[in-house]
Design a protein that fits this description.
There is one protein chain. Helix content is about 15%, strand content about 40%. It has a five-stranded antiparallel sheet, with no helix packed on it. A five-stranded antiparallel sheet has the order 9-8-10-11-12, with no helix packed on it. Strands 2-4-3-7 form a four-stranded antiparallel sheet. α3 packs antiparallel against α4 (about 195-215). Mean pLDDT is about 85; it is low at about 1-20 and about 25-30. It has a domain at about 60-80 and about 140-220. With about 350 residues, the chain is α+β, with helices and mostly antiparallel strands. The chain is elongated and about 95 Å long. The chain is built from five helices and 14 strands. β5 (about 110-115) and β6 (about 120-125) form a beta hairpin.
Length: about 350
């Protein structure tokens, strides 16, 4: 969360005022005032992936002989998949769009709120606090340790084949115990439903743990990777990163993975000023962005992994809130989007 700071309004002598002046920032040449940045829009591209790791069991070669299980792999394996892609716009100070609100004597100086890196957020009001977001931790599949359930007889066995045989017998014994309990034929039946549930869960856990020695373990782990871009124009099928089913996300230059292409296209929703308009002197006031829109997509092979649109300040232009909005007779409240520099809300009170 970015914490803004506030410049309090100056006290104004009764019966006198002057408009607040806004100018381009010139270090060492401006009178005292509030210097602010307009933002340029960067994009955090977060790719959520899942890694699946298979580890063969110690007795995988005996799975068919003792448990009649076929198709059990004896080779370790690791597979990655792309689960989702999330794009988050982020405002960063645009060093080419820096302005100063000069606070002259006898001025009606507005209350100005900036982000901690100087991007303007609000005038004569407070920018709403963002809602708290809980960060989801990357999770990993919990696995049991089968060696916690091995008996002394199993551990004292003289060979791997003998251990596998004894573990298989233990699995069959557990299954017989579960069947006896569910049928009400066990010698020591639980006295109530809760005890029955606890006993069955314990037997189920033991069976699952011992089965891992034959069928192996499969662990799923979620991992996220973030790439930041700051577009300055259209992007046509640029390799953003590469993806490998064996290695996951790799660098764009790493040929071990197949390319994930980024395409970003300006929708041209905001007309660009002509040369005549550029040379024309703009009225004095608070400068803000009118951002534009862009289509964006990410493609991996024939699969489209993301498609949408974003608001980007670089694809727009700037406008001015004239000084007469901030005179002594009117209190104008303004909210700006610190990500794009666009106008969110303007409200005048007499």
């Amino acid at each position: 969360m970015r914490i803004g700071f506030i410049l309090l309004s100056l006290l104004i002598p009764a019966g006198s005022y002057a408009q607040t002046e806004v100018s381009n920032y010139l270090p060492g040449k401006n009178s005292e005032g509030v210097t602010y940045f307009l933002p340029k829009t960067s994009i955090d591209i977060t790719v959520k992936t899942e890694k699946t790791t298979y580890t063969p069991g110690d007795f995988c070669r005996y799975a068919e002989k003792y448990l009649r299980l076929t198709g059990i792999s004896t080779t370790p394996d690791e597979q990655w998949t792309i689960q989702s892609v999330i794009l988050t716009p982020v405002g960063t100070p645009d060093t080419e769009k820096v302005f100063t609100i000069k606070l002259k004597d006898k001025t009606v100086a507005p209350l100005v709120e900036l982000t901690e890196d100087g991007i303007i957020k609000a005038i004569n009001t407070t920018y709403p606090k963002p809602s708290s977001q809980t960060t989801q931790e990357e999770n990993k599949t919990h696995t049991l340790n089968p060696r916690d359930y091995l008996t002394e007889e199993i551990l004292m066995a003289g060979s791997t084949a003998k251990m596998a045989e004894l573990v298989a017998k233990e699995i069959y014994n557990i299954r017989e115990s579960k069947n006896a309990i569910t049928r009400g034929q066990a010698d020591n039946m639980p006295k109530d439903g809760e005890s029955l549930k606890i006993m069955l869960n314990s037997l189920e856990e033991q069976e699952q743990a011992l089965m891992q020695l034959f069928i192996g373990t499969t662990v799923k782990e979620n991992k996220s990777f973030t790439v930041k871009i700051t577009p300055t124009g259209n992007i046509n099928k640029e390799v953003l990163f590469r993806f490998s089913k064996k290695l996951g996300i790799v660098a764009a230059s790493d040929l071990a993975g197949s390319p994930v292409y980024l395409t970003l296209t300006n929708q041209n929703t905001v007309p660009q000023p002509t040369e005549e308009e550029k040379n024309k002197k703009k009225p004095e006031g608070v400068v803000y962005n009118v951002p534009g829109k862009a289509d964006i997509s990410l493609d991996h092979g024939i699969r489209n992994v993301y498609k949408g649109e974003l608001i980007i300040s670089q694809f727009g232009n700037t406008e001015v809130l004239t000084n007469n909005l901030f005179n002594k007779k009117t209190t104008t409240k303004v909210l700006f989007d610190p990500t794009t520099g666009g106008l969110i809300k303007i409200e005048a009170e007499n």
